[in-house]
Structures are given as structure tokens and as C-alpha cells.
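Notes to self after the Tuesday call (sharing in case useful).
The group wants a holo model before anyone commits to mutagenesis around the pocket. I volunteered. Ligand is magnesium ion. Logging inputs and output together so the record is complete.
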Amino acid sequence: MAVPRLSVVIPMYNEEAVLPLLVSRLRPVLDGLGRTYEVVAVDDGSRDATAAMVTLMRAKWPELRLIRLRRNSGHQAAITAGLHRSRGDHVVTLDADLQDPPEAIAEMLGLAEAQSLDIVYGVRGDRASDTAFKRGTADLYYRLMRHIVGNRMPSGAGDFRLLSRAMVDALCSLPEQAPVYRLLVPWLGFPSGQVVYTREKRAAGTSKYPLAKMINLTVDSIVSFTAAPLRLGIWLGGLGALACAVAAVKVLVAYAQGAVVPGWTSLSLVVLFLGAAQLICLGLLGEYVGRIYRGIQARPGYFVGEDSLAEDRRADGRPEPDFHDEPVRPRRAAVSADAHLRRPG
Ligand code: UDP
Ligand code: MG
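Result:
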């Protein structure tokens, strides 16, 4: 198969329930675009039959490609794997659960080509199908993120979007350890447009985003884009110093009046407050230090166990294509360790 013009990257984690519905809705849309395409199904270490089902479906749908990650690496890492290995001039990322309508892909492509845009965001116009809790937390998340990244980030833009090849190459060249695409994409500043759609209910199966993963995504989003939380320590310290000055006067006056025995409550409060403030600041510092540590370790966010494209090529006796993630990373230590040997003179 020649290099496809469009890639559709779909991260999948235990999505066997929704897979047949997804295929039956996605395929007519893509076949109707009148251009070559590939569907990159990234199996994110599913423990159900997702990968086996995709393999079976490939017999009838040659444009379907399976990339299996060796273990569950998370939604954003699965998208990274798909982006790194996609080949199209345009790449659409889409959730597997049909909450984002595949029909919008045609409109996204049309808009990108008509206005030469590098990004077309799918923006959720109506989230009535989400729970009140999901809507409330999402609203808070977007407000915070727009504050951090600026208004370039459209409110309500999730991971359903179309990117140009130039944009995908730019994203793949970033050294991010834990990329959060909904922030990185607007941050790069490429020309963008949006297509508004109605967010539907998950077609089948259950959400793969429990509260813990939502919190992780939020922490990753904040810590990877701003060091402002570290200033909390300075503010709390300043506040503490101010309170201390006031309290010192009070304590000295009380001492002069001989009224020094009561005060257990205030003492406990001060100790507890300072202890909590210090632990919060330490925890915040830990988040950043942890990220520096992971950055230095430079371990890849995912490992590909299987790529049906590479296997098809091998079977045909053709060379495997080069992907952004191969070799995974230059071996920095090895290069610098023997650099002196190769220095001329
Ligand atoms: N997903 C993934 N790895 C994970 C969690 C989720 O690849 O560890 C995929 C999942 O299969 C789906 C997409 O990410 O295609 C979004 O997940 P989900 O729809 O469950 O999230 P929600 O819409 O509930 O926020
Ligand atoms: Mg979903």
C-alpha cells in the first residue's frame, strides 16, 4: 500500500465492547473521503480481546493497522505512539468510544485544506451527555489551562483533532516525557481552526478514565507548563512571617502581663498550619524534582511490541519504514563517553 494521505490514530484500552460499533461507523466515513488512509489502532496493553479483534478485522479492512504497546502506558502515551508511527499528510486523533463523531473528520479535513490550517480542533459544543461531575471538573480544568497556556487553547477541545504533517513532526521532535497534547498543540502556535460537535455518550463499555487518571492528567498539565505552584512556598512563607510579626507583639504583651499559661489552642493551630504548609510545598517541589529525574532517565513513554505495518513489509521482503521512535533515543551517555577518542589530534 502506498503512503496514505490520512492517518486516523485511535488509542484503545480494553475496548472490545465498542470496537465493532466503531468500525461500522468509521469505515463508511473514511471510504467516502476519496483519499488513501490508514487507521492506526494503538492497543494500549489491553487485557481483553481488543488486539485479537483488530487483527481479525484487518483481514477485511486492509487500511486497519495494529500497533500493540507492551503494557498499559496511558492515553497520551498511546497517542504519542500513534503520532510517531503515523504516515499521513494529515493525522486525526480519535477516541475509540464514539463520543467524538467520526463524521466530523470530513469537515475537519475540508476546513484544514480550504484555509491551510495545521490544526483543526474538535470542540465540544454540548456536553449534556456527560455526568454533572465530569462537566464540572472539565470546566474547572479548561479554565485553569486557559489561564496557563493562554486563550489559544479553545475551551472544550479534547483529544479529537486533526493535525498537519508539519505539526505532527513538530510534536514528535519535542523531548517531552509526559506530553499533554491538549496543551502542547495550542502552545506551538500553528494556525488553527475548529469544528464544533455534540459530545455523545460512550457507545459501549465503561470509561477508562477513573478519577485517579483525571488527577494525573491535571497534575501533568500544570507541572509541565508552569512553575508557578513553586511560588506558593514564597507566598505562604511571607504570610507566615507577617502573622509571626503580629503574634510576636501579642506574645510579648501577654508575657509582660503575666498571662502566659493558656494558649494551647493557638499553639496547636500554628504548629498544624505550618506543618501542613511545609508538606504541601515539599510535595510540590517533589513533583518538579520527580519530573527532572524522569527527564534525566529519559526512558521512552511506551514500547511497541508489534506493528502490523512493519510485519506486512517484512513479509513482502520490503524494508521497514523509519519511524520517529526508532531508534528510541540517541544513547547520549555512550556518545559522550568515547567522544574524546574521536577528537582529531
Ligand atoms: N485509553 C487508553 N489508555 C488508557 C486509558 C484510556 O488508550 O490507559 C483510551 C480509551 O480506550 C479511549 C480513550 O483513551 O479510546 C479515552 O478514554 P475514555 O473514553 O475511557 O475516557 P473518558 O471519555 O471517559 O474521559
Ligand atoms: Mg470517552
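Two things stood out.
Residues 327-336 have pLDDT under 50 and may be disordered.
The longest strand covers residues 119-126.
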